[in-house]
Write a structure and sequence with these properties.
Number of strands of chain B: 10
Number of domains of chain A: 3
CATH architecture of the largest domain in chain A: 2-Layer Sandwich
CATH class of chain B: Mainly Beta
Largest sheet of chain B: 6 strands, antiparallel
CATH topology of the largest domain in chain A: Beta-Lactamase
Distance between the termini of chain A: 68 Å
Order of helices and strands of chain B: HEEEEHEEEHHEEE
CATH class of the largest domain in chain A: Alpha Beta
Number of helices of chain A: 9
Order of helices and strands of chain A: EEEEHEEHEHHEEEHEEEHEEEHEHHEEE
Structural class of chain B: alpha+beta
Radius of gyration of chain A: 26 Å
Number of helices of chain B: 4
Helix content of chain A: 25-40%
Strand content of chain A: 25-35%
Number of domains of chain B: 1
Oligomer: heterodimer
CATH superfamily of the largest domain in chain A: GAF domain
CATH architecture of chain B: Roll
Chain lengths: 437, 161
């Protein structure tokens, strides 16, 4: 049998699909389907939005016929299908819900289209219907060559910051994807924080997304790629960023027309999310989803491998001697233990695990004049609330490093070797711990 | 007797809508085919849909055995959709000149979907028919159903209503 893989382009929703069923009497019934969704080589899922004759019929006799068409070539296919089950939650349901939200707002049906379930059908036969189909004009260039090149670049990276930046640079250079972000999971708070971004006015490093919120949060929570080909208010972040004191504004596009979020995992654990967006409608197709999902696998293992290699090595020979702060007025650094947030003067810097790490470094510096630290000692320090496994310490240090780079000329972190770094302080500090009210 | 089809419905299904038909075989497996134009009789008691005999071969074969048919009409711009069912479908040959009807409908439909970015070439391919292959599927409308997406979708409409 022809695989569903071969007709995925027909499942992007350009041309409305129809399903035909038969009732108990033998009367055929025709219904438009908002979405025929690709599940795997042998299954599709149809959006179940209304209790109608189709539903009544397939619950009685599961056999149905679906007609789909390619929106570019006008080629039509008949799918002989058999209803298997309805899913009303989980990864498939969320993928379809997001896609439907985009289609609904695109077609002026927001508020009318609501997904009640994902009806999964086994595809028994696919037949191309006789028609003078047009010659296909590929909308997207092939994605395997750029994927291969980016994979090679990833494999050559020896540091996390290099890995993240090269990945996003590669997406731009090799895939033509201009707006991208990498977010890491903070298991403790159930939130994802941005560690790298590309294509925005402000980096937004440190900005957060809650699990389950928007395209990224749902992709992380369900561990499945979420893709929208049209703008939907339900999945946009822009308006939500309020810029409260301890919140870093979301850097993303105000009105993305296409969005794709792919979870990054390794060893069975979620590490983070790779997110891309575009001002163009239908910017990302099934193949982009494939390519980025494959990329996310490489990324996940590369991150894991780099995290395991942080045994302290010798300090780099050219490491400069710590700079002594000049005798100026002290910079007040405030720390709020309730959420581990840190403020430099009046300016919010960071919170969470990265905030707790920073506070430990500053206290050690203030008490003992220490400036050199290793990743390993941070891992073992009881004052830092790292989860036992998948601590993502490197990502948190990178986040801290980048926030300091963006927000302060007086404080910095400098790498001095594998698994080692130095705190640079260029002004006397006054540390103030503010107890919860 | 009030015809099943109201005047407004008759006008709608003869407009620049997407037309599809369904039949079923003896084992009750369904078949879908495209309609290329639709006409309603003066008394609104007969619907005739033009199809391409080559492209709709299975549908026509099934209708010749058993005339139970469902026809769906949808206006892309508004999603307004009606389904009409009949139990007495027959297949009739097309007459010279019926190709003009197919061409007229094709052009009207092409204008409809051009706003969504579909080219004339696309519509030509979608509603193509082989030369000399046109024929009519004619039936008496037995029931009309509302299928516009929304809470009333699937509702059977009153005769003439």
């Amino acid at each position: 049998m022809r695989s569903v893989d071969s007709i995925r382009d027909c499942l992007e929703g350009g041309v409305p699909s129809l399903i035909a069923t038969c009732d108990a009497e033998g009367m055929p019934n025709l219904t438009y389907v908002s979405q025929v969704h690709y599940v795997d080589a042998e299954h599709v899922a149809l959006s179940f939005q209304f209790f109608n004759k189709t539903r009544e019929n397939i619950l009685r006799d599961p056999r149905a016929t679906v007609r789909v068409a390619n929106a570019e070539t006008a080629a039509e296919y008949r799918l002989d299908v058999e209803y298997q089950r309805t899913e009303s939650e989980g990864p498939l349901f969320e993928r379809m819900k997001a896609k439907l939200a985009g289609v609904a707002s695109h077609t002026g049906m927001a508020g009318v289209f609501k997904l009640l379930g994902a009806d999964v059908y086994r595809v028994q036969a696919i037949e191309q219907l006789p028609s003078p189909a047009l010659a296909p004009e590929r909308l997207h260039p092939p994605l395997l060559p750029p994927l291969r090149r980016l994979g090679e670049r990833i494999a050559a990276c020896g540091e996390l910051d290099e890995l993240l930046d090269r990945t996003l640079a590669g997406l731009q250079e090799l895939f033509g994807i201009h707006h991208s972000m990498l977010l890491m999971l903070d298991q403790g708070s159930g939130r994802l924080y941005t560690v790298a971004s590309r294509g925005y006015g402000a980096s937004g490093v440190g900005s957060e997304v809650a699990l389950g919120h928007g395209v990224i949060g749902v992709a992380a929570e369900q561990r499945t790629p979420i893709r929208l080909s049209y703008a939907s208010m339900d999945y946009i972040y822009g308006a939500a960023a309020t810029g409260t004191a301890a919140e870093i504004p979301w850097p993303g596009l105000r009105e993305p027309q296409s969005q794709l979020a792919v979870p990054i995992g390794s060893g069975g654990r979620l590490q983070g999310v790779l997110y891309v967006e575009s001002l163009e409608e239908m910017a990302f197709c099934y193949e982009h989803e494939d390519a980025l999902a494959a990329l996310a696998v490489s990324l996940g293992f590369a991150m894991q491998a780099l995290a395991q290699e942080d045994e302290p090595g010798e300090p780099a020979p050219d490491a400069a001697a710590p700079q002594q702060p000049a005798g100026k007025a002290a910079l007040q650094v405030r720390y709020y233990p309730e959420d581990d947030s840190v403020f430099l003067g009046e300016d919010y810097l960071i919170k969470g695990v990265a905030g707790a790490i920073f506070w430990k470094l500053l206290r050690d510096y203030q008490r003992d004049g220490r400036t050199d630290f290793s990743n390993r000692e941070l891992r073992l320090d009881p004052s830092i609330p790292l989860p036992d496994i998948a601590d993502n310490l490197e990502a948190r240090l990178l986040l801290l490093h980048r926030r300091l780079q963006e927000r302060s000329t007086l404080l910095a972190l400098e790498k001095t070797g594998r698994g080692r770094f130095r705190l640079c302080v260029r002004q006397p500090l006054k540390l103030v711990e503010v107890a919860a009210a | 007797m009030v015809p099943e089809l109201s005047r407004a419905q008759a006008a709608f299904i003869q407009g620049p809508v997407s037309i599809s038909l369904a039949s079923r075989d003896a084992a009750r497996r369904t078949t879908i085919a495209r309609g290329l134009s639709c006409r309603v009789s003066e008394a609104r008691d007969q619907i005739s849909i033009l199809v391409c005999g080559a492209r709709a071969a299975s549908l026509l074969a099934e209708l010749r055995v058993d005339g139970w048919v469902a026809a769906s009409y949808s206006l892309p711009a508004t999603h307004e959709t009606l389904q009409v069912k009949g139990r007495d479908a027959s297949v009739e040959p097309a007459l010279p000149g019926d190709e003009v009807l197919a061409a007229t409908h094709r052009a009207a439909f092409a204008t409809q979907i051009a706003v969504a970015g579909f080219t004339v070439a696309f519509t030509e391919a979608l509603l193509h028919h082989e030369p000399g292959q046109l024929c009519w599927v004619r039936f008496t409308p037995a029931a009309v159903y509302m299928q516009t997406p929304g809470p009333r979708a699937g509702e059977r409409l009153k005769a003439g209503g």
